[in-house]
Amino acid sequence: MTDLPIGKIVKSNSHIDYVCQVFGQGETLHPPVPSAYGFGSFVAVELETAGEPDRALVGLVYNTLLMNPEFGALGPRLSPRSEVEIFSPDYLAETATLLGVIAIGWLDGVGQVHQGVPAAVATVNCLVRRLERTELLTFHADGTGQPQLRYTPLLLAHNHALVAPLLLAVIDQLGELFPLSRSRLTVMRNNIAWKSIVQPAG
User: Fold this and answer.
1) Pick from 49, 36, 46, 153: nearest CA to 97
2) 6 Cβ partners below 8 Å, 6+ apart?
3) Distance of CA 151 to the CA centre of its chain
4) Sign (positive/negative) of CA torsion 118, 119, 122, 127?
5) pTM of the entire structure?
6) Which H/E stretch holds residue 127?
7) 196 CB contacts (<8 Å, ≥6 apart)?
8) 3-state DSSP call for residue 185?
9) 3-state secondary structure of 20
10) Three-state secondary structure along the chain?
């Protein structure tokens, strides 16, 4: 069963860097819980390309931004939140949770997975959902039972302070999915952790 959408694409910062707005109360029957879009979550961005071979981008949640119109409003609160929900629901709709999603691959229409920079692009309002466990396994399996992370250089080239913690979170997830490869993944994890400490200091 496909996971329910957690939000929709509202903008992009580059060809692979997207912004997803998480669905809130009133926007969907089943608003997602925070654990569904936590840091390091793998997501699928469903493409609106009828007849095209690519059906979804695979991305990683690497950042979160909260939008709150109440911040900076120094005036008195004339109504409690419970009354605002009834009399001014549009005001509450201005609050939003935005996710930074970096595309690291794609799923095509014939069941094949690809890691790297996708040629296809998402459009505004494309639905974003959590990647299913079977999709996550298929996306990383190299055919020999070992995980592949060909998108690592892509992440490292993304000049963002959270890239190193993101890679560590990914490796921890893959350690659970590929228990026979934990020793190899541990070596990679230790290398990234060491570089994340040494390089800023150097």
Assistant:
1) 36
2) 20, 22, 23, 32, 36, 37, 43, 128, 129, 130
3) 14
4) negative
5) 0.85
6) strand 127-130
7) 164, 165, 168
8) helix
9) strand
10) CCCCEEEEEEEECCCCEEEEEECCECCECCCCCHHHHCCCCEEEEECCCCCCCEEEEEEEEEEEEEECCCCCCCCCCCCCHHHHHHHCHHHHHCCEEEEEEEEEEEEECCCCEEECCCCCCCCCCCEEEECCHHHHHHHHECCCCCECCCCHHHHHHCCCCCHHHHHHHHHHHHHHHCHHHHHHHHHHHHHHHHHHHHHHHC
Q: What is the pLDDT of residues 106-155, one digit of tens each?
A: 998 787 899 999 999 999 999 999 999 999 999 999 888 889 999 999 99
Each domain of the chain, given as residue ranges in start order, spans 5-201
| Assigned token pair, 177 | 């999915």
Length of the chain: 202
